[in-house]
Write a structure and sequence with these properties.
7-stranded mixed β-sheet; 26% helix; globular
Length: 336
């Protein structure tokens, strides 16, 4: 069996992760037993949710154990197999780890994928993976948009947010996006088709509230929230009656003591609702969502950018791009 490089969680971060919280080791890959197969990981998805998995309390998944490899969604190729349903050379996708080789078993999280069905195999980590399904089911089923409504998307230049804005346009809505910096804001309107873009940088809550009001003079019917903090509070001050807030993420609070939304009273004033969303609830319907996303993409109405860094040894720097906002699209690490 080959040697295996692994990116380990060495200690639990206190606030923003630092390099010393992790370790990078090489150790032998365990031998396979009956029913197992060995995956050579080619690409790994780097996601904000991984920050929550580092904490001792965990969240919707158990925390990563200290001394164990960081958990990640990966796509790769079966190198060796002692499982009848998995053959050598077969492309697979699953929840494995940030490592060169992962051992999986029949009945686990790993499933075969057909690399010939997509323009790039990495699309299984973006538009046809959890990212695309979060946007599709989170927006359409949790937020319940109606044609003619105004949709506000925070983190709009990110992988999920950019898709939500495009889905809003496909379904006859007005899309307003919030992003960091003039380049990302320009991408929202020029590439993804948003009707308006707001640069949050240099703006406090009051300034953001005013900026949203200008971009959405008729108010906001749907908020697809990825950021939290002052951005969410500013959005809440612009709600229309019976608005819906889909809470997908709170990335601004992952490395700090949670600030919490302070304008929740607006939900009472506007008789609005807020609902958390988690893509795991829709796993059994991923096929349905992938077909629809494929149709939108084939018609030229949906696109996604993928930011691919290379080298397992660069896992920490690539992961921290998510919090610095220096990634241009879905953050993916090329391992093989």
């Amino acid at each position: 069996m080959p040697d295996n490089r692994r990116f380990l969680l060495q200690r639990r971060p206190d606030g923003e992760p630092v390099r010393e919280d992790f370790d990078f080791i090489t150790e032998p890959t365990p031998a396979l037993v009956e029913g197992e197969f060995l995956i050579r990981n080619h690409y790994a998805s780097l996601d904000p949710a991984m920050r929550g998995w580092m904490d001792a309390g965990g969240n919707y998944m158990p925390p990563v154990a200290l001394g164990d490899a960081m958990r990640a969604s990966t796509i790769g190729v079966v190198e060796e197999s002692r499982a009848e349903s998995f053959e050598k050379g077969q492309w697979v996708m699953g929840l494995n780890a940030l490592e060169d080789y992962s051992v999986s078993a029949v009945g686990g999280f790993t499933q075969p994928i057909d690399a010939t069905l997509v323009p790039e195999v990495t699309n299984y980590l973006s538009i046809f993976g959890a990212v695309g399904m979060t946007a599709y089911f989170g927006f359409l089923e949790v937020c319940e948009p109606k044609a003619g409504e105004t949709v506000l998307v925070s983190g709009a230049a990110g992988a999920v947010g950019s898709l939500v804005g495009q889905l809003a346009k496909i379904h006859g809505c007005r899309a307003v996006g919030i992003a960091g910096g003039p380049e990302k804001c320009a991408r929202l309107t020029e590439k993804y088709g948003f009707d308006a873009a707001i640069d949050y940088r240099g703006k406090d809550q009051a300034a953001l509230t005013t900026a949203i009001a200008r971009a959405a003079p008729d108010g906001v019917d749907v908020i697809f929230e990825n950021v939290g903090g002052a951005i969410l509070d500013a959005g809440l001050m612009n709600l229309n009656l019976y608005a819906r807030v889909g809470l997908c993420g709170l990335i601004s609070e992952y490395n700090t003591d949670p600030r919490g939304a302070r304008n929740l009273w607006q939900l009472i004033v506007k008789r609005a609702s807020i609902r958390g969303l988690l893509v795991a609830d829709y796993v059994e319907r991923f096929g349905e969502g992938a077909v629809k996303m494929g149709e939108f993409a084939a018609a030229g109405n949906l696109m996604i950018d993928e930011h691919i860094d290379e080298g397992l040894e660069n896992a920490f720097d690539s992961f921290m791009r998510l919090f610095a906002g220096t990634n241009d699209g879905k953050m993916i690490l090329k391992i093989a």
